[in-house]
Hints:
Low-confidence stretches: 1-17, 24-28
Largest sheet: 4 strands, parallel
CATH class of the domain at 291-423: Alpha Beta
Oligomer: single chain
CATH topology of the domain at 291-423: Rossmann fold
Strand order of the largest sheet: 6-5-7-8
Amino acid sequence: MARLNVEKDRIIEKEKVVVDGIELSREWNRMFEQRVIFDYDTSMLDKVTSIPGAESMGWCYQCGQCVPVCPVDTVGGEYGPRKIYRNLQYGIDLFESPDLWKCTTCMNCLRVCPKDVNMIDIMPAVRAEAVMEGQVPDELQEAFENTFEYGNPLGESPRKRADWTKEVSVEVPIMKEINRPVDVLWFVECYPAYHHRSKDATKALAEILVRLGVDFGILGVEEKCSCDSQRLAGEVGLFEEFAEHNIKTLKKYKFNKILTTDPHALNALRKEYPKYGGEFEVVHYTTFLAPLIDKIEWKKTLNYKVTFHDPCYLGRHNGEYDAPRKLIEALPGVEFVEMGRCREQSYCCGGGGGGMWLDGFMADHIKERLSENRIKEAVATGADVLVVCCPYEVSRFEDAVKSTGNEGKIIVRDIAELIKEAMG
């Protein structure tokens, strides 16, 4: 910890103030402001920057641009790379600090950082060390164990991964059953396959693809979690095991491109799987549908005023901002209004980087959930519908609508759900 070399016997204890995290009396601060000397303990900073992938933590020069754009700091989390760097200078052990698990890897700090301090590399690298030492929040550990045992973080039976296909009126081809090449292999992912609300968008997308005449197939029970969020939360070994399984399975079949519902799966398949021999063309479903939107015959006017939330892993991480907007603007009768924080500056729902499984943990360290902060912004636009295109977001935002007392003011819908509705 930082030490203060002062004449302590002369300190007059009066009203407390905090200076750089050190509690001082106002009289002490007045009398000794020229004599307070910080002895920095850089051992923790050295420990972090010695971890492969976390070196850039040492590049911070305290400009502070990251703090106002950090979604966790916005909700009272006292956060941001600058603050983490400062704590490391004071010798605070990041491995034993809640700060290690607060980061959602939203990438907004890196967007503005002049020194390229890369939390997207730093946090997973440090978390991986903590995971090996068994220092993991209980909620996150449960998600890890579920993924290992069942192939998904929800703890659902792997045999039921394709059961959602029985709930749609169209035939969904399964690669193992049709035994032929397809143009598009749809990597459905866990939440779209199992979660009761995320499945609504999955079923809608299946009907859209069939109506558009897309030649596609899914892996069904052969698919396992892409594990990108688990990797970012520090479970590198689990990610590698599942990546190798999925790559081996994908290589069994012939297809031209992979379609993903989940931006996190998009990130894994596009950026991480090639490191393990999985070279595929991968697109998010909004990117795939945008050029086809003129082929859709609309049968219903929606008459909604909508706003849109850019997913961190579709936008900042993978550069797709226009396709979702093109789809929204094509919907008949829809009035589209942007939130103040949108596109590159979009806020975070709180689900990335393992945050999807850390709501209980985060509740002890922030004043409101990130999803609640975002819902308030969406409601302020006067929109009837908050439109999303990430399977994490439907449930997160619907919960936030209730917890912020905004039921009846706004509903949450995936773009695929709205397209299906307008198609009649």
